[in-house]
Amino acid sequence: MDSLSRRGPKHPHSIVKRFCRQCQCLHAQIAGAITGYLAYEERSALALRLLLRLATLYFLQKADFLEADPDYMRHSLEQHQEHHDEPDTYYSQYFLPLLVTLLGGSSQDARFHTLPHLPLPLFRLSPLEQLMGLADSAFQAVYDLFDTYTWQLARQPFDTQSLTPVALSCLYEQHLNQKKMGAYYTSEDITYYMACNTLIPYLLDTLAKRISPSALHAMLALPLSHFTPSRYLPAALQEPNLLPLETAFEHIMRHARLIQLEAHLEHEGIATPMELVTSNLDARQFLLDALTLCEDVETLLAFYDILEHVSVLDPTCGCGAFLCTTLDLLQVLYSACLQRLCSFTTHPRCQELRASVASSPGRDYFVLHAILTHNLYGIDLLEEATTICQHQLLLALLACAPPSARQPLPPNLEEHICSGDILSDTMPAFSWPSFFPQVMARGGFDIVLGNPPYLELQRAPASLLDQPPRSRTPTYGNLYAEVLLRASQISHADQSYLGLLVPLSLCGSPRFASLRALLRQSSATLWLAHFEIFPCRLFEGAFQRLTLLLARRDTSTSAAQQTYSTRIQRWYASERPQLIELIHYTPLDSAPATTTFLKLAAPPHAQILHTLARLPDQVALGSLLAPGCTPYFVYYQEATNYWTKAVCHIPFYKKNGVLMTPPHGRFLYFSSEPLAHVVMAVMNSSLFYTWFATHSDGFHLTHTLVKAFPLPRELLDSAQLQELALALEHDILRHAHYSTRHTRENVQHTHVGLRIELMEYMLSRSRPLLDQIDTLLAEFYGFTAEELSFLLHYDQKYRAAHDEV
C-alpha cells in the first residue's frame, strides 16, 4: 500500500497538538503523584516516560497485539483492582511485570502467557522505577483521556481524527526547552521535501553510473511518454483560480511559470535528475512511474541493489522526524521496484527475491525490515531522543506484521540509531569508523539530512556541551555551522547529497564566508530556499530566518558548479499549505557573481542586479558621504523588515522621559541638502528594498550594504527626484503618530521595565509617492517595463499591511 499521498505526507496536526496539551496537564498530575525519595526532575522524567509507554501500549492494543483486546489496558486495571484488595498496587504488581514480559523476560505469570515478544526500547526499566510508587487513579486518568482518541499504529492516518506514533515525538519534544536547545520539531512537509529531493536524485545519479546512458535516457523518458506534465507539477501551481490571499500580479506570474514548465516538459522532457529538484516537480511520482513502466530487468535489478545499499544519516536526529519520513519514502520505492521485479518469473535473481518475500509475514514487513537493517542512521546528544527514534521506527515495522507472527526485530537498530557527540575531536570522541564501519569503509554516507540546532556555542546549555572544552575545535562558533561542516566531512566525497535546514546567516554573514566557499568547491549543484519569520515563521517558537540547503556532491562531473536560489519567502497562515509547492528556484549564474548566496525571486530579479552592476557611469553611495558630520544627513534604522525607514531628520524618541536619539540607527552625512534628499528617496524605494532583501539576512541593514548601493551619476542632480524626496519627507511626517510602549523588566541592565515614547512612521500610506520614485528611478537605471513591474510588486501585499517604527 502506498503510505504517502501524491505530494507528501499529511497529518492532522491539530489533533496531535490537542492531545499533547491535554497530556501536559496529566504529566504534571502524575509527576506530583509519584511517591518515593526522588527529585522533581526525576519525577518529571518518569512521568513523561510513563505517558510515552502508555501511549505505545494503546497503539499496540488497537492493532490487536495485546491478546486481540482493543481495550486491554483499561481491562487490565479493572481486573487487577477486582482481584486485589490492597489499593494502588497496579503499577508495581501489573504494569512493571507487563513491561518485563513484553521485553522478553521469563514470566511464570499466567496473565502474560499469550503476550508477544515486543522488545521496544521504551519498555526497558531504569533503577529509579523500582523505587517509585504510583496510585491507580493516575492510570485511570490516563486511560480516561486516551479512550477519547482513535489510535492507529500505521504512520499515515486513515482519517483526520486518528493519532499515529508521530504523537510520541510531539509528546516528548513539548517538554524540551526548544529555544534553549536550539532544536525545533520539523513539520512533515519540510522533512518530505528534503528527503524526496535528496534521496531520489541520489538514486538516479547512482543508477546513471551503473547502466548505459541510453538506458538511463530511456528510463527518464518513460513517465512523460505515458502521462501529461500535469501529473508531476505541483497542484498549487496548477490551480486556475486565485490561491488564498494571492494578488492578481502573483496569479499572472504563477500562470506564466506554469505555461513555461508545461512547454519545457512537453518538448524537452527530463534530461537529468537535478531537473526534478530545480523545477520542483513531484520526483516521487515521476520515479514510481519510471519503475512501473520499465521493461529492462537489469535496470530494475541495478536500482534495487542501489536501494539496498543507500545510507541515510541524520546527524542530529532527535526523535526521528527525518528518518521516519525517509522510511516512508523508501518503503514506497522498495515496494514498487520489488513488485516490478517479481513479475519477471524466469530471472534467477527475481526468483530469489520472490522467495524471500514469500517467507516473510508480508511484502511491507520484508521491505521495512530491510530498510531498518541497511539504510537508516541517526545520532543525537540526547539518549532519550534516540530511544524514541528507535521506538518509532520499530513501531512502523510492527504495524506491518500480523500480531500472531513472532518475527525478529532488526538486530542492529541500536547500532544505527545511537547517542553521541558528533562534534567532539578527542577522547571521548565519536568515532565514525567505529560506530559505522561499513558505511565509512565505502567512503561515507550517501545522504545526510537534518535540522541541526541553531545555537552559538558559548550560549549552548551544558547538556549540549558535556565534553571538556579541549575536546572541541570550533571553526565557526555556531552549532548549525559545525554540523554542516561535519556533514560535508562524513558524506561520500565522490557522490552524495546533503539536505540541511540552517539559519539564513549562512548565505551572507562574513563569519561563514569560508563555509560558503567550501560548499561551492565541494558541491556540483546547490539549491537554497529561504524563509522569513514575518508575518509567519516556519516553526513554532523558532525566531530564525531559515535557509533550506540541498547540495549535490559529484566529483565525476566536469560541468561548472551551479547554484539555484529562491527569494526570501514571506507568507500568511492561510498561504502556508502552498508554501513548499510554490518554491521557485532561479539560477545564481544569471546574477552578478558574489561571495554570498543571493536571494532571487525570478529572472527579472537577476536582470535588475545585472543592470545595477553594469551601470556605465555609476557611483557607490558610500563615495558620496562627507568626511565628517554636517547639517545634511539621512538617518535610517538598522533593523529592517518591510521598510527601510530613511528620513532627513532625527525621529522623536524618549526613554523614561529622557529625549534622545533612537538606538540602533545610523547617520549618513552629505555635503549638501539636495544630495541628502536624493539618497533618502532612493533608500525608501522598492528598488533599494529589493537590494536589501537580495543581499541581507532579512533584518539587519548594514552600513556596508548601504554604502555599496550603486547610483547613476546623473541621478544625483535630478530636480524631479529632489522634489519627490521633499514631498515624501512631508508625507512621512503627515502620516506619523506618537506611540508609547512599556517594556518588560530588563534583567541584564536596569532590572526595571522601560517607558518608551516614539514616533511611528506609516510608510505604506506613502506608497503612491514611493511608486513615483521607483518609476523615475527606472528611467535613470534603464529598467524594462517588466523589471519595473517586478519591483513595484515585490512583497507588495506584506509591505502594504505592515508599518514599522
Q: What this model shows, in words?
A:
- The protein is an alpha/beta fold and 805 residues long.
- Helices cover 45% and strands 11% of the residues.
- The strands form 5 sheets. The chain has a 9-stranded mixed beta sheet with strand order 5-4-3-6-7-9-8-10-11, sandwiched between helices. Strands 16-15-20-19 form a 4-stranded antiparallel beta sheet. Strands 14-13-17 form a 3-stranded antiparallel beta sheet.
- Helix 22 links the parallel strand 6 and strand 7.
Structural class comes to: alpha/beta
For the terminal residues, how far apart are their CA atoms? 55 Å
Low-confidence stretches: 1-6, 465-470
Q: What's the gyration radius in Å?
A: 30 Å
Strand content: 5-15%
Q: Report the strand count.
A: 20
Mean pLDDT over all positions? 91
Largest sheet: 9 strands, mixed
Quick recap:
With 805 residues, the chain is an alpha/beta fold. The chain has 31 helices and 20 strands. The longest helix has 23 residues, at 40-62.
List the helices and strands and how they pair.
Layout (H helix, E strand, L loop, with lengths): L12 H21 L6 H23 L9 H12 L6 H14 L32 H11 L3 E2 L10 E2 L2 H8 L4 H4 L6 H21 L4 H14 L8 H4 L9 H20 L6 H5 L4 H11 L3 H13 L2 E3 L6 H21 L6 H11 L4 H12 L1 E5 L2 H16 L14 H4 E3 L12 H4 L1 H5 L5 E4 L28 H12 L4 E9 L9 H10 L2 E7 L14 E9 L7 E8 L16 E2 L15 H11 L4 E3 L11 E6 L8 E2 L5 E3 L2 E2 L5 E6 L2 H11 L2 H10 L7 H6 L1 E3 L6 H17 L1 E6 L12 E6 L6 H15 L3 H9 L2 H6 L4
Parallel strand pairs: 1-2, 3-4, 3-6, 4-5, 6-7, 8-10
Antiparallel strand pairs: 7-9, 8-9, 10-11, 12-18, 13-14, 13-17, 15-16, 15-20, 19-20
Helix pairs in contact: 1-2, 1-5, 1-6, 6-18, 8-14, 8-15, 9-13, 13-15, 14-15, 15-17, 17-18, 24-30, 25-28, 28-29, 29-30
